[in-house]
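Homework help board

Subject: predicted structure for assignment chain

Our instructor gave us this sequence and asked us to write out the predicted structure in token form, then describe one feature. I got the tokens but I'm not sure how to describe them. Can anyone check?
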Amino acid sequence: MSGSGQPPLIIIIGGAIAGAESARFFADLGATVIVIEQNQRPYGKVEDGLPRWHLKLQQKHIREIDDHLSLPTVHLVPRTQVGADIRLDQIQTWQPDAVIFASGAWRDRPLSIPGVERHLGKRFCYQNRFVYWFNHYLDQAYDGDQVDIQDHALVVGGGLASIDVVKILQIELARKAFKERGISYTSPALEHGNGLRAALDQHRLTLTDLGLTGATLIYRKPAEELPLAPIPPTATEAERLKRKQVSLKLLSLAQQKFLFRFLPAHLPVGLLEENDQLVGLKLMPTSAHGEPLPGAASVDVRSRLIISSIGSIPHPIEGLTLNGERYRLSDGETCQAAGFENVYLVGNAVTGKGNIITSQRHARMVCEKILARLQNRIRGGAKIELALAKIRERQREVGYPGDYRTYRDMVRWQNPDAGTMHG
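My token output:
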């Protein structure tokens, strides 16, 4: 990169897929890159958004993140949250050439039923917390929230993450029931191949034999509108129909393998409560667009566990303006944050897809746009030594040894279900 004669200073918020890809992009160009990561480990939804049976996929992307963050001009600052531990206006005093938010979308989209939040942590749970619990509850050091898995749970949603949630429910309940019969299974063993059905067939059992009825996935639109195979905005009508058929096939295969129920065209509109306990949902039949049908009667469906899996949205960050559930942009092409000359957004913070490959590609595309803006216009005032001094001070505070590979070995984590080390 040409310009002032000194390398540009790039600050990246978030070290997972989109953040690591952005770090690699600019480090390869000779930039000084500081990556500020809120968690102890930088793997984001690769580690905590995917159920732990996605072992090979996790390992692949963890290696990619490790490779990118261990580049010589990349400096990681873990356990540091922008807005809490450091403010955006403080970062701007370092005069960076670009600040790139790759912090993802970790806040569950609220389920819009009055009163449901009162039951959080009891009989109501959001997807992100639920998957995090599943991935870590077997860890020896885990001391976080607990989830009391219940049969006939209701899952509200319709995307791929919702399918993962119902699979977790079915697998965990089946594991417990198998164990009571003296049969031992790991989660990956019940997820791979032909799934739970294959395990039941092997022992000549049914779900009913295990004393289970199974979870129910509730989707607000008809089955053909399921977003399991995303439809590009430019798709023709024939392509749209083909994608819808793929979604239906994916649903059918998942049901065959994991034996859950599916209730389409119903929208949760109220709670069933007894003695201040959540015991189910009131559902309204809906139109093809997911709107309640005028004059239709509601349906009561009882359950002792309800999980909302209707998507994730970004956390509010002081200084960045939200436009509804997304950050406001002044330039959609470069994903420049409204009100800033040098702040950009990449990955799931913008796309809202929660898809690893989509986030990676989006980060690369936006970084190329940022580079085009920076060419021959490096600000030249970047206080690189000041920035590095500040982050080294923070690194010492959080126990970062200054070398990424050394740090990675310090925070490697054991997956007790698969018996495999990650990282």
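Reply (TA_rk): Your tokens look well-formed. For the description, you could write something like this. The longest strand covers residues 266-274. That's the kind of observation they're looking for.
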